[in-house]
Amino acid sequence: APLTLRAVCRSWQAIVDETRRAWSYLEITDTTSPAFCKSWIQHCAHVPYHLTVHPSVRKAVVEAALEAEECSPVCLSLFNSLHVLVNNFPNLEVLRLGPANRATKLRRNKRFKDEKNRSLYALRHRADASNSLLTSIRFPKLRALYLNAPPVCLLKQVAKASEFPPLLQELHILIDSEHWRPIVALTAGSLVKLGLRMSNRHPSLEGDRIDLPRLTDLSLSLRRLDKNRSTLEDHASRNLNFATPTLKNYREQDSVGMGSFPLYPGISTVKTVHFEGQKPIDWLGFDSLEEVVLTTPAVGVERQLSPLLEDIAVCPSLCSIKLVLYGEENMEIPEKERVYTALKALGERRRVVVEVQLPSPDYTKYHVEAFERFTYCSCNTGDERAQDRFNENQ
Prior knowledge:
alpha/beta; 15 strands
């Protein structure tokens, strides 16, 4: 964006050059040069900036972006180039690590594989290998960590108790190895937000209860990847052995459609809930619930909300219901009338506000899972329309 604005005229060029915040987001691709990175960093000197590194970027380019003494990133997104994590990041607040081999073309690229292997070797043989990779000395301000299937050896390096950053407040992690539980346990005392993505492809990882005394936000994303494995409900119930006395916001996205919402049982203190999917909802236990957000097909919303209409003693504190109903354009007129009549009756009987939002017809085609909304990995999908879908450039 700043390069486009600079090209308008000399006056605009001068304004953009003097506005350092205009240069506060740098996205490095395989066509970016080291000189370009250095020039960009000079423009945003002493201003916190975000750095996103695409999977196929060369090592020299990444190092050029990080070696500048003028400033260091507050948000760093990586797929490979993981060797840079042995550096010091005095201002880094958000770290996002994604799958290095996600793009098929990169798996066949010898240069990419060689650099990836060297990066992983550097992590395994760093000087302080007995400590966590994310030490409080190198990452003193780290507050949010996103682990979307980075290499297992990196997770091993992170899941070490020694010198782990003590003030991590936000953690989002894909459950694809046994290392997710130690990482959650290490951050349990300070976590405020936790996001988990799970499937039934991986075996259940049983463990002791983890106390999360400060957790206020919990997000779950569930996928069925193997029909021959145990049900997701069994998988989740054996893993989510948490104690969350301060939980206020709960979100669950389900692409399976089996069982019922919610999977997590500790919902008595929840005030806001957001369900995405068409499973039945068990409303019992939501003693403190005030606001409901439901993203679901319009054709099944009556069944999901019927317990609230039948018994006003369920969710006694409820005051707001927001419905995002997709597929409504495919319903027959009598069916639409029945749905909206039921929603009107629900609002009148419970004296709550019922808001209906109808997304565009392309919603189901381009809709992405909840987990993808809090990861940066849109730049590795190969879909140009998917770039920065979640306003990460802001």
